[in-house]
Amino acid sequence: MKEPVNEAKQKVKKQFGRSARQYVTSSTHSTGTDLALLPEWLQLTPEAVALDIATGGGHAAKAMAGQAAFVFATDLTVEMLEAAKQHLDAHANNIFYAAADAEALPFLDHTFDAGSCRIAAHHFPNPQAFVKEVCRVLKPGGRFVLIDNIAPADPSLDAFVNELESLRDHSHVRSYAISEWQEWFAQAGLRIEKEQCRKKTLGYREWVRRTTTSAEQIQQVDDHLLSADTFITDYFSIQKENGEVQSFEIDEWMVLVQK
Q1: Domains annotated on the chain, with CATH
Q2: Rounded CA separation 52/207 (Å)
Q3: pTM for this one?
C-alpha cells in the first residue's frame, strides 16, 4: 500500500536533516560528468534565472551559478539548505535559498528560464505533481534537466533495486522507470530534447553508511545484495571480496525537457 504523502515527506525531512553535511561531501553527489553537462544542456545565458529543485548539497546549483544571473536553490529540508549554503557561499554570491516542496513550488507562473533536479526525485511521493510544477514555473521555451536513478524495465530488476534503496534509506519512495517519466512529461506539456543513460558505480561502504542508522540495518542491505541471483548480480555488477560487497552499479538517466 502506498505511504501517505505527508508521512513520506516527514521521513525525507528526518533523513536529510540528520545527514545533511554528508550529502555536501558525498562523492556520488559532488562529482560526475553530468555536472559539467548541466549548464551546457540548459544553454544558460548571463541573464538567466535558474531553479534547482531538491538541491541537496547544492552541487547542481553551483554548476549553474557560474553562467546564470541568479539561481534559486530549494529543498524540503532546512538543515540541507543550511549545509548547502555554508558550502556554496565561498563559491558563488548569486545563489538564493528557499525551503520548498518540489510538488508545490512557492513561485509564480513563468518565473524561470531554466531549472534542474538532480539525484532527488526518487524521494518524491507524487512525481506527476512535481513535473506539473516544473512546467508551471518555467517560462515558455524554458529548459529543465532531470537527473536521477531509474528502475530498469525488467520487473525483477526494478523490484530488486527499489527494495535495496528502501532497506538502505527509509525515505526512498521509488526509482521510477523511464517510461513513467516520459508519460508524465508528455502529460504536462514538456518535450524531451535530449537524454543520456549511464551506469553509475557506487562505492558500497560510503553509500550504505550515509543513510543507515544501525548495524542491523546495514546487515539487511548486505544480505539483500549478497542474496542476489546471477542475473541480478551481473546486471548491477555487484563486486564482492571475501564475502563482502565492495561496489555495484545502478542506472541513472539525464534528460533535458523544454516547455
Answers
A1: 5-153+171-199+252-258 (3.40.50.150)
A2: 23
A3: 0.88
